[in-house]
Amino acid sequence: MISLACALCGFLLLSFRLWPRAAADAPPLSLWPKVSIIIPARNEAHNLPLLLESLQSLDYPNFETIVVDDNSDDETARIAKSFGVHVITGAAKPEGWFGKPWACHQGSLAATGDYLLFTDADTWHKPESLKKALAECRQHNAQGMTALPYHSNPKLWEQLLGPFQLLLLALTHPYGLPKKGRVFAIGQYLIFDTLFYKQIGGHAAIRSQAVDDLSLAELVLAAKGRWFVYTGKNLYKVRMYTTLPEFLKGWRRNFRGGMEHNNALSSLEVVLYFMAMTIGFDGGKASLLLSVMTLILLAFTQRRIGNFSFLGIVFLPFSILLFTSISILAVYDRLRARPLHWKNRIYETQ
To answer: Topology of domain 35-240, per CATH?
Structure first.
């Protein structure tokens, strides 16, 4: 009986966290402020063409694109220059900085826009996306903003990971009121009012953070700024990792960095979610019904955030195993203070 009650709590909490609550789009602005789009790029020659083509198609009337070539070993700089964008040759990374904050910092120094949009090379943007984003940002009087992505997932193994992504969303709660320890931010799409960004110290203030997005969002909140999460129709697509080993390595790093921002109850929430998904195996009718309802919820909501297959629900243990394994490895890395390897760089951690 206690197990069933806990599973029911998990289902209700999961429903509250994941049920879509997209508001109507903000009306267009009468005057569009200048936006500087900043792309940190280290060995991104394979990703840049799609991204830069999508940015050329933006219907926004007043923006500049800045690519920061972060000491790449490939054709990143040449490809960026072929699109006619402003390319910065990144300086050597100073001691104490992580690579991405350093690249973003250099881009921000060259920016001339009223707003800054930091985006990653593995994204591509819809033509109307920047107009929608700025209209929402201004309507909500936000000093910082992020937006949910749509995961493109061309391969089957990616399409099976809908429950994995939904667990991450439930823990960060994009539909909730942003607050310390419970704020949603994703580094693929971060918009800041330029003056406010400088006021809080920008990327220089989080130079030693492996996960820059959550750190910046919490800086905005700490400075009494407003942080807004756009949960409407997807503005951009993303494919973060192209192979399963890359996926495991990347999320192991992200989980480790995200631990500094986790709410103390996050571990309990995960247990409740897992119980809601799996309690049907105990054989009771009520338990089976609850698990079926949970799986239907996952099947419905996963289609809103990416090209995920219904087979991902059938292979739910795959997502649970990955989530659990990555969490354990991230805790191990943190407890042992293991060096972090990323983009052919090694970072010592505490």
So the answer is: Spore Coat Polysaccharide Biosynthesis Protein SpsA; Chain A (3.90.550)
